[in-house]
Write a structure and sequence with these properties.
The two termini are 41 Å apart. Strands 1, 2, 3, 4 and 5 form a five-stranded antiparallel beta sheet that branches. With 149 residues, the chain is an alpha+beta fold. The protein is built from five helices and five strands. It has two domains: 50 residues, no CATH class; 65 residues, no CATH class.
Length: 149
């Protein structure tokens, strides 16, 4: 909606004759201010934009990634993988060129730490970390959700 309003303002500026603004006694900036005032009285930008579903944001179902800040040094914390490589599961898959490629899933624990003061704020349970493909060209595939792995 903002793009439509901006485009209409630009078109108005391009096609409004200078003599029309001079004969009305309004300068160009006053004309734009009058248009903006009329837009605000009609509901403003807040009424025309899509509403935010705050329930989804609070329940962390959106793509908003929370950033934790260290209380000790006021720096952003990061999630770090312990790289333990504990065996979790294995299965087979077929590709166009290979048959019976064994996939081994390795898991690891993680933690939320501050990179500057090295304080550990949270420790996480096991997560999927690596998929090791024996025969196909995928090789060792990193599936770790941690920021530093």
């Amino acid at each position: 909606m903002r793009k439509v309003i901006l485009a209409s303002l630009v078109l108005m500026l391009l096609f409004v004759p200078i003599s029309a603004t001079a004969s009305s006694g309004l300068t160009l900036s006053e004309t734009i201010k009058a248009m903006e005032k009329a837009r605000i009285e009609a509901g403003g930008a807040d009424k025309t934009e899509d509403p935010v579903d705050w329930n989804r944001v609070i329940e962390n179902e959106c793509l908003i990634a929370p950033m934790y800040v260290c209380v000790d040094c006021n720096w952003f914390c990061v999630t770090v993988c312990a790289a333990e490589a504990v065996y979790a599961d294995s299965w087979y898959h077929d590709t166009l060129f290979t048959k019976d490629c064994k996939i081994t899933l390795l898991r690891s624990r993680g933690a939320m730490i501050c990179p500057t003061c090295q304080k550990v704020w949270e420790q996480y349970d096991y997560h999927d970390c690596w998929e090791v493909h024996d025969k196909c060209n995928v090789g060792n595939y990193d599936v770790c959700p941690m920021e530093v792995s």
